[in-house]
Task: structure prediction
Amino acid sequence: MEQKQTINFGPGPAKLPQSVLLQAQKELVNYNGIGISVLEMSHRSSDFSKILSSTESLLRELLNIPDNYKVMFLQGGGSGQFSAVPLNLIGLKEDNCADYIVTGTWSERAAKEAAKYGKVNIVHPKLDKYTKIPDPSSWTLNPSSSLFYYGCNETVHGGGYNITRKQNGVVLVSDMSSNFLSRPVDVSKFGLIFAGAQKNVGCAGVTVVIVREDLLGHALNECPIVLDYKVQATNNSLYNTPPCFSIYIMGLVLEWIKNNGGTAAMEKLNKHKSSMIYDIINVSNGFYACPVDVACRSRMNVPFRVGKKEGDEALEKKFLDGALKRGMISLKGHRSVGGIRASLYNAVTLEDAQALATYMKEFLKEHQ
Ligand code: PMP
Result:
């Protein structure tokens, strides 16, 4: 089998481990000798039940998920969860309020969606740019809130945020879509964690929700039944047809993570890869500039400008063209922020990151 020459730094859907793709290819037409594809299989068949339960077991093992948490595999993406979280949890207290931290595009969207279903309190002064998390001393929490929400990794702006302490004694909810399984996480600190699969743990179509059991059963009347956690958890994610193939791919990726040392090994690898890129930015004398505060820099998405602090667009185009010539794709920053963004999810290898680092050094030397 010919090795792929393209290095994919895409923000998601993103690179998958080569061995996962090859296994999926091998099994595509005839899964496990049963004569049909996973794509054709009933979601209620014993073969799919095995795929579903082994995927859940692997996830429980990799994250050490306590027994009093339910795991669901749902449709609707991370955006679906922006609605599902308030629809299911904002009614935990009678005033229907929620505290939100807004540190980037995705938490901003989540807070906006939640405001359809209750009162949203953004706990900190509004940020004029998304480069850090405001100091907790500036937060004003609402004592009536049912939940405290934050985005653990802001994919567009490149911020990584770590809150594990209960705020106001209410449930902590976190969107881990873009750093899920990139490191160990103490699930017991959270009421709910959700993550779309298409960055670190598979392909688009499935979103994992991990929720503490006692939080089920509080959905608002208007909650669509497919988003109702109690209904989905009671039916083991099979109330309606789940995204079967995406769950199967996730199972293969989880197996790959396990075989490669689990979340601790992923963390080590991700620290190594991201520091290689940040180190070049740091010593480039301002030629490369990352706007994010050093303490909040994401290990998954590294955004930077080229040429000067606010970016030299012509030089950035040259950078991207040169990268493309070397087989490095999807390095263009999100259209809302411009510049470059290198996404370094689990499947991006050390060699991939090294190739980018080498190119960055050469480009710097040539254009400084
Ligand atoms: N949260 C984060 C952190 C994301 O990066 C994204 C998508 N890039 C979403 C939520 C939305 O996910 P989806 O497109 O699956 O709805």
About this structure: The longest helix spans residues 262-282. Residues 41 and 148 are 39 Å apart (CA to CA).
